[in-house]
Amino acid sequence: MYMKHLKKQDAFTLIEIMVVLFLVVSFTALGLGYNSSTDENIAFFRDQGKVIAEIYKVRSSVLASYTSGNICAQGIEIVGDTIQVFGQRAPAGPCPDYTSKPTLDKVNLATIQLDDVNIVDPNFDAVLFVPPYLTVYSYMKAGETGNPCFTIELGSLSSGVMINNAGQVSAIQSCP
After folding, report:
1. Is residue 100 part of a domain?
2. Which range among 5-14, 24-33, 75-84, 107-116 has the greatest average pLDDT?
3. Which residues contact 175 (CB under 8 A, 6 or more apart)?
């Protein structure tokens, strides 16, 4: 019977390949590492999250004020680097229909000071959240259309924050 002698081929084992791959990935991670721009990114996204969370707090508190009967709606306006939270005072009768954009009878509820970020170019004067369905009414600046949007900046970083008609707040690359 004819038998072929197989010659053992020289090759790397799976373990050796995995060790080399682990070392390459580890050294690459060390090379990319942590630097000062990472600190700026962390601060920016922390503050961006803070802005979005504060707007959601206002949106959420609308329902609580609705049941108390003395506030018809709550809203925000941007004044410098602060977010002013206001309530729309209830008139003697029922709450108005905001589709006609009545004059706001505001009661200041809170001022949210943003220490690190700059708020730039809001395209609205006020955004109103109206219960019970959390309908959003935007008092846009003259000549502006679309959804309320503003830009936040920190150092070289900037991002837009937009509020859609359903009251959802989202971070976008830039305001349209």
Report:
1. yes
2. 75-84
3. 121, 123, 149, 150, 151, 160, 162
